[in-house]
Amino acid sequence: MTDPVKKSTVVTGASGLVGRALVEELSKDANNLVIPTSSADVNLLDFQATCDFMARHRPDIVYHMAARVSGIAGNMRAHGRGYFDNVMMNTHVIEAARLAGVKKIVGMGSTAVYSDLARLPMVEEDIWVGAPHSSEAGYAHAKRAMLAQLEAYREQYGIDYAFCLSTNLFGPHDKFDEQYGHVLPSLISKFHRGAMNNESVTIWGSGTPQRDFFYVKDAAAAIRMIGEKFSGTINLASGRSISIFDVATLLKKITSLKSDLLWDRSKPDGQKLRAYDLGKLSELGFRPEFSLEEALIETYEWYKSEFEHARR
Questions:
Q1: So what's the pLDDT on residue 274?
Q2: What is the pTM of this model?
Q3: What are all long-range contacts of 130-133, with beta carbons under 8 Å and residues at least 24 apart?
Q4: How far apart are CA 77 and CA 193, in angstroms?
Q5: What is the pLDDT of residue 96?
């Protein structure tokens, strides 16, 4: 009996939060030759370099996870760079994949593409309804442009695609940037510092906005299923919404913070409520493995270990 033919899979952004977890998830299949790709391997802003890379490996499927990503503060201060870099990377990867004969592309989008005008829970068909929230406009429009390209390439060239509209992801290897990072990793850093130094923790906004926070290990499992069994646009989230206030209360418990929480209402909240219809994801048979508290504890323990290692 001959051995099964291995399929070749490229994962861009393999050194990032999602890419690392996805490479680990995909590598569980012995018949999947996973090719992790980071900026050290190829500059996706360089079209010729991207084409050369794809031509050299000729993958069957590309999971395009690479992106320039920031939290609200980072997005607001760099709309232009967020738009340009993401549009160029996405355009280069998709065209280079086409030229290399790739059969399917799984793109990482973002629920930031949804407008405040979208109905709740947000459904994939409403992606083009209204403009994205102003706080993330440059980044969100770049993600919309990637979907437009994927749809055009499927129509003209017959390339299959899946486009994941991802909620707020978090986990080990995140960017714990208090100034420009996403809300959860920046809060973890703040709370750890506050717990160590017995300092109060200041949090942006009122605490009332609700978000769906999705652990990256669960997200990677879902993305693998999407790559294997789904075509089109799909929401990627846990299905559990929680207020920023309640997340802060949970983090205070996990980090054993004894000092006060201060709310800076002069800073923006972003969209007040985000909740997503997960019918398509549920039909694939996906269910999260981790509770939010379990995921936060695991992430915090990883962060503490890395923080202490860096201090030595």
A1: 82
A2: 0.93
A3: 133/270, 133/271
A4: 25
A5: 98
**pLDDT over 90 (residue 255):** yes
The one catalytic residue in 139, 161, 215, 276 is: 139
What is the chain written as a DSSP string?
A: -PPPPPEEEEEETTTSHHHHHHHHHHTTSTTEEEEEE-TTT--TT-HHHHHHHHHHH--SEEEE-------HHHHHH-HHHHHHHHHHHHHHHHHHHHHTT-SEEEEE--GGG--TTS-SSB-GGGTTSSPPPGGGHHHHHHHHHHHHHHHHHHHHH--EEEEEEE-EEE-TT----TTTS-HHHHHHHHHHHHHHHT--EEEES-S--EEEEEEHHHHHHHHHHHHHH--EEEEE--S-EEEHHHHHHHHHHHHT--S-EEEETTS----SB--B--HHHHHTT---SS-HHHHHHHHHHHHHHHHHHHH-
Banded model confidence at residue 1, pLDDT cuts 50, 70, 90: very low
For each of the domains in the chain, give its residue range(s) and CATH number, in order of start.
7-172+212-240+273-290 (3.40.50.720)
pLDDT per residue as tens digits for the range 52-81: 999 999 999 999 999 987 555 545 567 899
The rounded percent of the chain whose pLDDT value lies above 70 is: 95
Q: How many CA atoms lie within 13 A of 267 on its CB side?
A: 16
Task: Based on the residue annotation, tell me whether 139 is a catalytic residue of this protein.
Answer: yes
Residues 171-196 have pLDDT tens digits of 999 989 888 778 899 999 999 999 99
Selection from 47, 71, 53, 69 nearest residue 11 by Cα: 53
What is the distance between the alpha carbons of residues 292 and 271, in angstroms, rounded to a whole number?
Answer: 21
Return the number of other C-beta atoms located less than 10 Å from residue 259's C-beta: 14
Distance CA 139, CA 141 (A): 6
CB atoms within 10 A of CB 229: 12
CB distance 61 to 227 below 8 Å = yes
